[in-house]
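Because discrete structure vocabularies remain unfamiliar, it helps to consider an illustrative case, giving the amino acid sequence and backbone structure tokens:
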Amino acid sequence: GVKKEEPDQKEEKEDKKESKPTPPVKTKRVAFKFKTKFDVVELDGSGKVIDKGDDDFTPSMKWTGRKGGFEFKLGERGLGYYRTGKKVVIPSNMAYS
């Protein structure tokens, strides 16, 4: 007679049933620094940069009183206090896209 290798086949089937799921792969965190310092900006609902103001413009929804060297008006950057006699420079939305 020829010997059949049935016991080995049964063990293989049992091994497949008892196989454990592979553990999740651990990822390594990598830290890096940019050579250029980037401004953190806030966007409105349409993706435009919200103007937070600077030394020459302070946004304001209403008149809050006199501020020396500034005039309150609706200008190219919106409603707020503009430095008197200073040319208005509008921040570009393209700089952040």
